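Hey,

Quick one before I head out. I ran the complex with magnesium ion overnight. Inputs first:
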Amino acid sequence: MTPLTSDYALEIVDLNKAFGGLKVTQSVSLAIRRGERRLIIGPNGAGKTTLFNQISGDMRPNSGQIRLFGTDVTTFAPYKRAHLGLSRTYQIITLFTGDTLEHNVTLGLLGLLPSRWQMWRPLSFYGDLAGEARRTLDTVGLLHLANHPVSEIAYGEKRRVELAMALAQKPRVLLLDEPLAGLSNTERSTVKSLIASIPRETAVIMIEHDMDTALDLAETVTLLNYGRVIVDGERDVVIADERTREVYLGS
Ligand SMILES: Nc1ncnc2c1ncn2[C@@H]1O[C@H](COP(=O)(O)OP(=O)(O)OP(=O)(O)O)[C@@H](O)[C@H]1O
Ligand SMILES: [Mg+2]
């Protein structure tokens, strides 16, 4: 195994993924530095979530390579990537609605929620599990709702629970799939501050359509269209690029 010496948190080399004849990821190469704040943009169906699924290991690419801190993880199961410091949230909320927030977070920490088995950690990682679940809720200002069922809380609060569970892993690379989607203005500014408060050593890669909010958080931007990287680089340069306006801003 390659030693963990890379300057990059995440490197993607010539990644390809097709569903039948539909090429969803096409020769995608990306390099994300340690602690970088990267925004991924692109129209619906551009392949953004599919790219995340391949990075997290929820989906296998057809070809190409994914490296985390210099280690080739292309064939690693999701939980092994989590051990190297990768964590993610999902575009679609995956909490048990009839269960309390505290119980959901506990299950999440144990890797027992649907689509969350990659969150598995040895129990010793958490020590007091209930205490950890409550601390996790406290970090996102939801401790007072710990004993409420998920079905009773607002959508924006569910989003914060998801974010809290991803952060509880103390990730070195965090993938956020549309963390601001469907939020009210107030909820959006709460979640935005939460994202802004993520420790600087954590690289954050965020898919988001709400550019007004997301651009503030980004240092670099990647524009995807039809599964290809169209423009990639410093935020202001990508936003000013004519191809970005053509593809994404529609002008
Ligand atoms: N499991 C799958 N099987 C077949 N096709 C799929 C599968 N997952 C995604 N696709 C297709 O791949 C394309 C890209 O989907 P993806 O979800 O990655 O887009 P996206 O950029 O995240 O879009 P959005 O902004 O709407 O979330 C779409 O055409 C989608 O229908
Ligand atoms: Mg998506």
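The two ends are 47 Å apart (CA to CA).

Talk tomorrow,
K.
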